[in-house]
Write a structure and sequence with these properties.
- This protein starts with a helix and ends in a 13-residue tail after the last strand.
- The protein contains 5 helices and 4 strands.
- It is elongated, with a radius of gyration of 21 Å.
- A 4-stranded antiparallel beta sheet has the order 2-3-1-4.
- By secondary structure, the protein is an alpha+beta fold.
- The longest helix has 13 residues.
- The chain has 2 domains: 41 residues, Arc Repressor Mutant, subunit A; 82 residues, 2-Layer Sandwich (Alpha-Beta Plaits), CATH 3.30.70.
């Protein structure tokens, strides 16, 4: 269970993952040793899974993002695993989600431009195994992207 100090630590880490432990401790009114122990405990319990950089794909020249929704052919019991294994091999697939319902899998794909996307679609996406249905949604804009949790 998280207490108020744990929640404060997590809030500050969400807003500034690179904050030094001494500054974090000061903001939470605890000692640096206590802050470090609590961070280690939260990491060990799987609450805090790590710190990472968030890279803006468009700054690197990726201007197209497409959400692909797949319904898979259920005829082969290994089909789902084979599809996922092949999808993981495509570097431009930046997210894979699975669902219960009509849609089985969603891939988020980035490309430099529409010509690059067309080539990916033709050469890599359409060659994925066990596709029964496929729907493509081209991303227009992001209205909200929460990078923090309401702790």
């Amino acid at each position: 269970m998280l207490d108020d100090t744990d929640r404060r630590l997590l809030r500050y880490l969400q807003s500034d993952p690179a904050i030094p432990v001494s500054d974090l401790a000061q903001r939470c009114t605890i000692t640096p040793a206590t802050a470090a122990r609590r961070i280690d405990r939260l990491t060990g319990e799987g609450v805090l899974r790590g710190q990472h950089a968030i890279i803006d794909w468009s700054a690197l020249g990726f201007t197209v993002e497409v959400s692909l929704r797949f319904t898979l052919d259920k005829g082969d019991p290994r089909g789902f695993d084979e599809f996922l294994a092949e999808a993981r091999k495509i570097p431009q697939v930046v997210e894979i989600q699975t669902f219960l319902g009509r849609v089985d899998v969603r891939l988020s794909v980035i490309a430099r431009d529409m010509a690059h996307y067309r080539a990916l679609y033709r050469d890599r996406i359409l060659t994925l195994p066990h596709i029964s249905e496929l729907e493509a949604l081209v991303h227009i804009s992001t209205i909200k992207m929460a990078e923090t949790l309401p702790i």
